Amino acid sequence: MEILEIADPPQQATARTYALQFSSVNNLAGIVKFLTGHGFCARCTLRFLNYPNVKLFQESDELLAELVNLLAKTSETESSPLDNVADNRTGAVCPACLGLLQPAGVSLLCSALRQAVAACGFVFREHSLAISLPPSLMIRNYAAWHALVAQQLAGNATMVIPRAVEVKDVLKWVLGGWLHRELDLRFSVTSDVTTQLTVTHDETSRDHVALTAGGKAVPTKGGKKAKLAPEEGSGHAVVKNLQMLDHADFIKLGICPPKPCSSVCTVEVACAHAPMYIAGRYIKYSREVSQSPWIINGARHTEHSVEEVIGEPLQRHFRCSEWKFISAGREDLDVRMLGAGRPFVFELLQPRPPALSKGLFADIQREINARLPEAVQVSDLQRVPKSELTIIKEGEQTKTKVYRCIVWVSRPVKPTELEFLKDIKDLQLNQKTPIRVLHRRSLATRKKTIHRIGCEHLAPNFVMLDLETQAGTYIKEFVHSDLGRTFPNFGSLLNCEADILQLDVMAVSLAWPAVIDHGPDAAPRQQAFKNDFADMIARSLLEAPAADTAPSSTDTSCGDSLPTPAPEASSAQPPPSSTFPGSSGPPGGAAGAVSDVA
């Protein structure tokens, strides 16, 4: 029997028009009678004729039965039906498909699919179908094929028997057509929803043991020869054993053709939704909100976190089981994230989403921005594909950031002493792992770059720095040196000690995700920029007599201020107690509580 190039039948196909497609098959009636004589169902009989036509296998059971009867005839006058076809015998189970492709089996699968789709709670019109079959089906198909080869070789030694169409393929064609017709679900390999069909069959669960009875020993990597143990019943082990057996060995096993069975398969169906990825940018105005929940030994140390402010509405709308929060770097509790915000993405696991639309994301963004309007705001909320997660991960190493910090210096400085800072470009730092993170990061010296420095003189012992830096630069350690572990540092540049009082992230230079306009009522709240310590210093200068080292009224800055996005504001909390200006130490030891941004 040769492999055929078969054209699609006419649109209004009948059993007779299909039968014409097999006219060139040698001993067609004998093959059909052999298969049906061993209890094969109509679809399995056609499978072993190697007819890979989707439309045929989706035809009605009545048409398939009529077609098999036509193919079994040796002449037009022969009219006796094929009584042995499993479909024609009440309670008979096809030994080649274990009943899955018989009318009752297909009906059972369709009913299970309908129930699973109704119960999953997803809103979807496309899906992919994943089918897991018992290894015994593979063995039985091999056994049927070898039996057919033996039967044909007995009559014609030169006859070629093609491999059969796989049960899994036929199931996908049959069930896919039914799902399209009955539930309006179309197949798509890119769909987020997977319908998982798992089939088991206890009666044949030990079929694999017979494979080792006559299996050949094959060389392994170590040069020795070995056979798989009979207990190895996984799909991979069965495939390996089948590959070890040639036709003569398989026939000797005594399992050709496959033995009849009395029970049908057990089927489980479940619908699963692939993770969804929701991206945007967040602005954090408050110094009392952590980026992620801050819980130590079961005790919560902050009332709110950025992750929860955004994640809880997403979970409510998309009904996910859990989420994973990923951001382009991080800031500490008392560090604000200003400017256009920090890119983030939520991975929503096992979601059950509503119908997606731009209006949905506008509604969610509006809800998030109304939760803590003085503390956390988001923009550009949207769905992104999983492939774009590489952008946010790669950005951790390639992006630059702009910081603004208030710095105390141990000696009074004049504005003119700071002018040289504007000429510094791409200052190379050697940063040993900071002491405060040694418990979670390996000890190493990392080279980091300060691209630009902008400086404004606030008072004799206070300056405001704008820093554009490479990602991963520890700002706090650049300012106070971390006991000399970062060099050069700001203190070494001014030949004095320095400490950081306050830190803000002004910009994260990652052009992702795309800018989305969700309308003015969903846009993040804009507020005038305020700097807690800088404002206090300015007030104290107005209230105190001018000192010899007081800043010039006409020149209070050096270097160009670094470009920052539209200024934002925070709900400012009172700074620690301090002495202004010209104090001999950092106010209130505030620097010890401040952390930089990764």
Characterise this structure.
The chain has 598 residues and is α+β, with helices and mostly antiparallel strands. It has helices at 15-19, 28-37, 42-47, 54-57, 61-72, 103-120, 135-155, 167-183, 235-243, 247-252, 306-318, 358-371, 389-398, 475-480, 490-494, 532-543; strands spanning 126-132, 186-187, 193-200, 218-219, 225-226, 266-273, 276-284, 295-296, 299-300, 322-327, 336-349, 376-383, 400-409, 425-432, 445-459, 462-470, 486-487, 498-508, 557-558. The strands form four sheets. Strands 7, 10, 11, 12, 13, 14, 15, 16, 17, 18 and 19 form an eleven-stranded mixed β-sheet that branches. It has a four-stranded mixed β-sheet with strand order 2-1-3-6, with helices on one face. The protein has a two-stranded antiparallel ribbon with strand order 4-5. The model is unreliable at 1-10, 215-231, 547-557, 563-584 and 588-598 (pLDDT under 50).
List keywords for this structure.
single chain, four-stranded mixed sheet, 598 residues, eleven-stranded mixed sheet, alpha+beta, disordered N terminus, 28% helix
Structure summarized in a few sentences:
With 598 residues, this protein is of the alpha+beta class. It is built from 16 helices and 19 strands.
> What is the molecular shape?
elongated
Average pLDDT level: 80
Q: Give the distance, in angstroms, between the N- and C-terminal Cα atoms.
A: 69 Å
Strand-pairing-aware structural class = alpha+beta
- The helical percent reads 25-40%
Rg estimate, integer Å: 37 Å
